Amino acid sequence: MLRALLDSLSRQTTSHRYEVVVVDDGSAGDLGPLEVEFSDITLRVIRLPRSRGRAFARNEGVRNSAGKILVFVDDDMTVVDRFVEAHVAAHTASEAVAIGDVLTAPEYRRDPLARYVEQQGVRRLRNKQKIPPKCVRTGNLSMSREMFGKIGMFDEAIDRYGEDMDLGMKLYYGGAKFVFADRAISYHHHPPDIDDVIAKMEEYGRYTVPLLVAQHPEIARVIRVHVTEPIRWFRDRPAVVLQKLAYRAGMTPPVYRFARWLYRFQGLGRLLFPVIDYLRAYTYIRAYAETRRETGAGARGSEPGT
Q1: Which of 14, 136, 211, 219 could bond 168 through an S-S bridge, CB–CB 3.0 to 4.6 Å?
Q2: Predicted structure pTM score
Q3: Concatenated DSSP letters for 35-101?
Q4: Residue 40: what pLDDT?
Q5: How far is it, in rounded angstroms, from Cα 91 to Cα 73?
Q6: Of 129, 207, 132, 197, which Cα lies nearest the Cα of 163?
Q7: How far is 261 from 255, CA to CA, in rounded Å?
């Protein structure tokens, strides 16, 4: 898959000079020969002797690059011929942060999970002129080096899945203007696997969400983990009380097992989207709640309106 990505990056139609930096986060293989294989582009392979996590690896790639505009892309994607051109075109101001369009690879287009993933982020918004920070997806994203340095880069304390939410919040605080670069298209070739999604959500809820909530308390409501807090009958808004009651009723093992059973009916197509939503939310919220109980910590979400 990495070779497929590099091949697509070598076919770019653009007047701009660009370099490609691959960060090998402590894998067992040797990616060095790729620099010779793809000598037609400016390619540099940075090998970390041991895995340091996604945030550190991305930062290390930036530290070993020279461009004024940084474009992040995942290794299981391929990009269109004008991918670089489209990202550069989106940077009409120094505060611009361009979120590219991640589409399902043709070989998985009929899979409900792949189609669900494709419709997340900016694609889920009706008004794409007002993009919230939760829509930042580091698999296809660009910003100026100046902006990246200004916000303090990726937080290397977040060494598990979900580092993009923290980056999105820091960009928002830093005055970033999020734009949807719909012509900066990448195709995601990762095989859709609900067990893989659930494993990532478990990791996200157990390790990353506690860090996010501690650093950005308002995120608790954005990602709905505030429902794990005790019900404050005379302080919470009625809508929040209902959310917490719904959590206690719906986030139970029998309901989860029914949702897993229902997911087996792949022919339902888009009708499975709410089921996938539930499975993801159940997993990371439950993992977060368990971590809170184990550590004795509390999630203090921001008050409504903040």
Answers
A1: 136
A2: 0.88
A3: HHHTTTSEEEEEEESS---HHHHHHHHHHT---SEEEEE-TTEEE-TTHHHHHHHT-SSTTEEEEEE
A4: 86
A5: 17
A6: 207
A7: 10
Give the H or E element holding residue 20: strand 19-25
Domains of the chain (ranges, CATH numbers): 2-188 (3.90.550.10), 194-295 (no CATH)
What's the pLDDT at 301? Answer: 40
Give the separation between CA 91 and CA 169, rounded to whole angstroms. Answer: 19
Give the residue ranges of the chain where pLDDT is below 70.
297-306
Q: How far apart are the first and last CA of the chain?
A: 43
Question: Do residues 276 and 264 touch, judged by C-beta distance below 8 A?
Answer: no
Backbone dihedral region of 3: left (phi > 0), alpha (psi from -120 to 50 degrees) or beta?
alpha
Q: What are φ and ψ of residue 211, in 5° steps? A: -70, -40
Supply the pLDDT for residue 302: 39
Q: Cα–Cα distance between 213 and 222 in angstroms, integer?
A: 10
